[in-house]
Amino acid sequence: MDEAHLLSREMLEEIRFLLNLRMDSYSAMSLILVGQTELRETLKLQVNKAIWQRVDMRFHLQALTREELQPTLPNI
User: Which of 32, 47, 50, 62 is 20–30 Å from 7 (CA)?
Assistant: First the structure.
């Protein structure tokens, strides 16, 4: 789910409910949330603690440096 930092509190609660569903001890759903830094802060709030605890993997992509933004030209 892209732009997940824009999810409302109600939508996060629905996601928590869906993540609670289990079939034969396996989760019925895998979910990838992608968003800006605010997403991490929102999920850390006490009201979203249940979702935060269900996150198996977290990754924060650092900003690119100026050198990384420079286009590379092939040698001709």
Answer: 62
